[in-house]
Design a protein that fits this description.
Largest sheet: 5 strands, mixed, barrel
Low-confidence stretches: none
Strand order of the largest sheet: 1-2-3-5-4
Distance between the termini: 14 Å
Number of strands: 6
Shape: globular
Mean pLDDT: 93
Strand content: 35-45%
Order of helices and strands: HEEEHHEEE
């Protein structure tokens, strides 16, 4: 796993999905490497951030909506989330869409190398 070189719990995307389903959609921890990210706008003109991560086996899309996005704008502008950066976050999983959303009040944290 590409996460083996980082201090982390080693939670895979599959494990996060399984835990979220067991919790009825509640918050779960998610760890991975950023594959890509982009800022976008909703149809109503509200900004959001799409972040694609990988755990080396699966990829996942995480949506960061307006309120949580405001907490990350400075870091995004400074490119503190480059491709390949190892991150962890608490997310909610939408089983119907197969996507994650950054949980309310949470931030994306960088993982440190071992």
């Amino acid at each position: 796993s590409p996460l083996d070189v980082y201090k982390c719990d080693g939670i895979t995307i599959a494990q996060a999905k399984e835990a979220a389903i067991k919790n009825g959609g509640g918050e779960v921890k998610l760890e991975g490497l950023i594959k890509d990210h982009t800022l976008a706008e909703t149809k109503n003109g509200k900004p959001f951030w799409k972040v694609w991560i990988t755990d080396g086996i699966q990829d996942a899309l995480i949506f960061v909506w307006e309120r949580e996005l405001a907490r990350h704008l400075t870091e995004i502008e400074k490119d503190e989330y480059p491709k390949g950066a190892a991150v962890q976050m608490f997310v909610e999983y939408d089983e119907k869409r197969g996507t994650f959303t950054l949980a309310r009040g949470e931030i994306i944290g960088r993982l440190k190398a071992r």
